[in-house]
Amino acid sequence: MSYQHQYVDGTRIHFALGKVVCIGRNYAEHAKELDNPIPSEPLLFIKPGSCVVPLDGGFKIPEERGSVHYEAEIAVLLGKSLSPQPSEEEVLDAISGFAPALDLTLRDLQAQLKEKGLPWERAKCFDGACVLPPFVVGSTFEDLADIGIRLTINGEVRQDGNSALMLNPIVAMIQHMASQFSLHAGDVILTGTPAGVGPLNVGDELVLELPGVSRFEGRVL
């Protein structure tokens, strides 16, 4: 696999890339903008590790498959496996890093599949559907209820959110995920996207940030 986890300082992380565990509609305003109801319990889905690509050097999108939407999210890297019922302390101890990430969605295909009542993994799990820059170490944030996420495209801020607005806070979210399926070192948690999602186009210049902590530039090739 070409992608490797790394920290901002360039240090490589010595465990294999695992799966990407995601939560949908974790910000009320995002659910509203897509005219979706707020789930009564966490809406979980998984992307395979094979869909992960780095932001550095730019990334490609499958334009021939319809509209590709960006969704900026706070990514959490696990450095330890978790038990099925982890305590808050165990979850915090397992968090190895944080990064701003892009969850990409084939929006036209997703809509078609949803209309037919079919699973929509094909709209979320294509190669390149998760764009990850390097992580900052987990101890960077003392308060996980105050982590910003921002995406700027062609000089215009498109998404500007904060973990304080999450319907399912980070630790409780990971605890719920661990109760549903095994979480291992190398797994990445995508924590949901704030309002402002929209289409990407070839040539778009992106800035992806955890404001005040890490900032990365990339381009749609």
State the helix count: 4
Give the full name of the CATH homologous superfamily.
Fumarylacetoacetase-like, C-terminal domain
Mean pLDDT: 94
**Oligomer designation:** single chain
Strand content: 25-35%
> Tally of extended strands?
15
Number of domains: 1
Largest sheet: 8 strands, mixed
- The run of helices and strands is EHEEEEHEEHEEEEHEEEE
CATH architecture: Alpha-Beta Complex
Structural class: alpha+beta
Give the CA-CA distance, first to last residue.
21 Å
Residue share in helix: 10-25%
What's the CATH C level? Alpha Beta
Overall outline: globular
Low-confidence stretches: none
Determine Rg (CA atoms, Å): 16 Å
CATH topology category name: Fumarylacetoacetate hydrolase, domain 2
Q: Would you give an account of this structure?
A:
It is a single chain. With 221 residues, the protein is an alpha+beta fold. It has one domain: Alpha-Beta Complex (Fumarylacetoacetate hydrolase, domain 2), CATH 3.90.850. The chain is 15% helix and 31% strand. It has 4 helices and 15 strands. Strands 1, 2, 3, 5, 6, 8, 9 and 12 form an 8-stranded mixed sheet that branches. It is globular and about 45 Å long.
